[in-house]
Amino acid sequence: MVAPARDNPVFHDWPARQLTAYDMHRELQREAHSSCTVSACLMKRYCWGGLVEMGHSPVDSVDECPACDKSMSARYSFPDGSTICP
Questions:
Q1: Euclidean distance between the first and final Cα of the chain, in Å?
Q2: What is the pTM of this model?
Q3: 44 FRET partner, CA 20 to 30 A, in 19, 20, 29, 72?
Q4: Which of 34, 22, 33 is nearest to 64 (CA)?
């Protein structure tokens, strides 16, 4: 029997690469993290903390976040300050 994707521990580890604000918002909205807590899930902790550090609202989706709405560079920024603005 295969475990559901939300139970796969890989989805809850610290990410292998930096994520943009857009990626972090999307990750926090995934069903795989719906019952996770910031203290128990490293991915949720990374995304939540990264968004707060960059001035984003981690409870909002990318389309509802006031910081992401201001500019595309805010949406595609990394915690280290760099961007990949399309």
A1: 41
A2: 0.79
A3: 72
A4: 22
Pairwise CA distance, residues 14 & 76, whole Å: 19
Distance CA 85, CA 9 (A): 31
Q: Which residues contact 66 (CB under 8 A, 6 or more apart)?
A: 57, 60
Output the six-digit token pair for 66: 């006031």
The rounded distance, in Å, linking the Cα atoms of 49 and 60 is 14
The tens digit of pLDDT for each residue in 58-72 reads: 999 988 998 887 777
Q: Give the angle subtended at the CA of 36 by the CAs of 78 and 17, to the nearest 5°.
A: 25
Name 5's Cβ contacts closer than 8 Å, sequence gap at least 6.
11, 32
68, 75 contact by CB (below 8 A) = yes
Half-sphere exposure in the Cβ direction for 27 (13 Å, CA): 26
Q: 3-class SS at 58?
A: coil
